[in-house]
Amino acid sequence: MKRHLISAGDLSRDDALLILDTAEELARVSERSIKKLPTLRGRTVVNLFFEDSTRTRISFEAAAKRLSADVINFSAKGSSVSKGESLKDTALTLEAMGADAVVIRHGSSGAPHRLANWVHGSVVNAGDGTHEHPTQALLDAFSMRRRLGALDGRRITIVGDVLHSRVARSNVLLLHTLGAEVTLVAPPTLLPVSVDTWPCSVSYDLDGVLPKSDAVMMLRVQKERMNAAYFPSEREYSRRYGLDRDRFAKLPDDAIVMHPGPMNRGMEIAAEVADSPRSTIVEQVANGVTIRMAVLYLLLGGEIA
Amino acid sequence: MIIHNVRILGGEPVDIRVEGGVVTEITPAGPAADATGARSRGDEAVHEVIDGRGAIALPGLVDLHTHLREPGREDAETVLTGTQSAARGGYTAVHAMANTSPVADTAGVVEQVWRLGREYGLCDVQPVGAVTVGLDGRQLAELGAMADSAARVRVFSDDGKCVSDAVLMRRALEYVKAFDGVVAQHAQEPRLTEGAQMNEGVVSGRLGLTGWPAVAEEAVIARDCLLAAHVGSRLHVCHVSTAGSVEILRWAKSKGWNVTAEVTPHHLLLTDDLVEESPAGAYNPIYKVNPPLRTRADVEALRAALADGTIDIVATDHAPHPVEDKETEWSAAAMGMVGLETALSVVQEAMVDTGLLDWAGVAERMSAAPARIGRLPGHGRPIEAGSPANITLYDPSVRTEVDPSAFASKSRNTPYAGMTLPGRVVATFLRGKPTVLEGKLA
């Protein structure tokens, strides 16, 4: 594996399977009454969050703590960053503190790449702008594998704002690496113009795709997209691309429903669908901790006790 | 003074005799390599001989698109360092863009910049006037006052911003006819490029950077060509970057319309892949520039267009920025690259060494044509008896690694750092006065 995890595309098939298999082992630890492993004792993991994301931050924090790492949470709000400190100066500060790994969430695509030039520790991308979110893709793959078995030949449908979605980018790359067949479904305005060069297929017709899906992943629709004329109205979006009860019925019986959260219930996904037994949405959160443990463990070279 | 043993436009070796800042005689290169030798032949008027060692002599280069940053951003560049940089790049005249602070939208500001250039005497500084007050795109600046000022402004541009209002653009095109001006348009449809970060295409899709579509440039160029034709004015299109723009320009020229266009050295050499993968690392803002780097197909089209004359000139769009404005995450970084000191080498690499252009072609596109468009009668003249002695000596035979720390420019934001490029400016003469000798500021 490379020293950093910045893009899901950095992972070979063997890397990805190693992370998933390691996560399986670590999941067993999470089932114990004492969930803590000593493997990263004395190592420092910094959570560097330039965007608010309590969910992702506490997931990484829990993962690092279960491996006994020291965790420093550095959030941009109220810190020197909000007073105009540059990313480089922040990086040099962390470097001086001796961070072994920096988990970064940043609103600018590519910020983790830049950070990696300035720190010696491993950089883990916890979401950069509209680029990637590789640990989300790994936890999604982990969740799917637990429900569906090996992902080779599995048909995965990703629905929604692909253009602005770091979750979609990472998932397309990782699922392709793992041998799954990915179909993106979105209004044409919310797909990159170059999407035909991606290793997946594209459809504008959700109803046509659902019966041929083993898993369907609904992406969050940001309210601000509506003002930029990506689609006419919330209702229209919901009618054409929302996973409501009727559409849910078109899925094969054993197909699962996923969402990276946070959800707009009633917009891209109906409440009954989100709460159905075939939804993995809550599992995804639990699996997030496990997969992030596996990533930190492998990047920092710990050992399973 | 005699400039000994140089090859004008790559021709046979000659000696160029310069008196009073003017070329007085050109003779086949004699054996005499020093003033003593010349004097011993009874040539008492020769005080100095400069040995060109077979370098190519070009008419002094003229840049139609330079950002000197003064007044306002003297931390990035000043008229002094910018003209030093220009001289080292072989330039004898540069057009200083108007997007300074304060904006060059009054006679006072353009005269100040023009005077500074004259004072330093390294390179003629011809200010460009803003088209609209404060580059705001709402009200025409006092174009006539700038034209009538000591700076004699003839090129007007809101460069950095597009004159996107069609009516305002029409009026500007019409208005400057009264003093033989030209509007140099930065073609960028603002709504199509809100938040845009890089060329919209395969790479931007993968990198999750907001795309800057080619059509945002092409649509404005098409509109402006039609406007210029309608009102019978001169239009100049800044930094053309797409294959589609080339097609539109070719069409406009086929109609006989008075449209000229420029391409930057970087758009002739670099592509948007560099944002994803380069020795400088992914998402390195050293490649962030407006208009953005495009694709290989665009580069090929631009080279062909420069070769066949569809694009008239090379202009550097020299855009200095201090380190801290580039050493950031991509979206926070400033757009632009310095270019004066590498322009000729890049043109050699992209156009001459590829067989697309000979040295006469280079002289036309980097000196004669920009001087014509900018209405600079003292520049861009062929090196012949009677012409002002604005001369650049260039040795195309060497290849060197680009070392930004050696630049005269105050800024180091070059995308060519560490790249090996051909050629070296050996000497530059501004009206007979050497501004650069042996590659160093004289």
Secondary structure blueprint with pairings:
The complex is a heterodimer of chains A (305) and B (442).
Chain A: H1 13-31, E1 44-49, H2 54-66, E2 70-75, H3 87-97, E3 101-106, H4 111-116, E4 122-128, H5 134-148, E5 155-159, H6 166-177, E6 181-185, E7 201-203, H7 206-209, E8 215-218, H8 224-227, H9 234-241, H10 245-248, E9 256-258, H11 271-274, H12 281-300
Parallel strand pairs in A: 1-2, 1-3, 3-4, 5-6, 5-8, 6-7, 8-9
Chain B: E1 2-8, E2 13-19, E3 22-28, H1 35-40, E4 49-59, E5 61-66, H2 79-88, E6 91-96, H3 107-120, E7 124-127, H4 143-148, E8 155-156, H5 166-175, E9 182-185, E10 198-199, H6 202-207, E11 211-212, H7 214-231, E12 235-237, H8 243-254, E13 259-263, H9 265-269, H10 273-276, H11 296-308, E14 313-314, H12 343-352, H13 359-373, E15 391-401, E16 420-430, E17 433-437, E18 440-441
Parallel strand pairs in B: 1-4, 5-6, 6-7, 8-9, 9-12, 10-11, 12-13, 13-14
Antiparallel strand pairs in B: 1-2, 2-3, 4-15, 15-16, 16-17, 17-18
Helix pairs in contact in B: 5-7, 7-8, 8-11
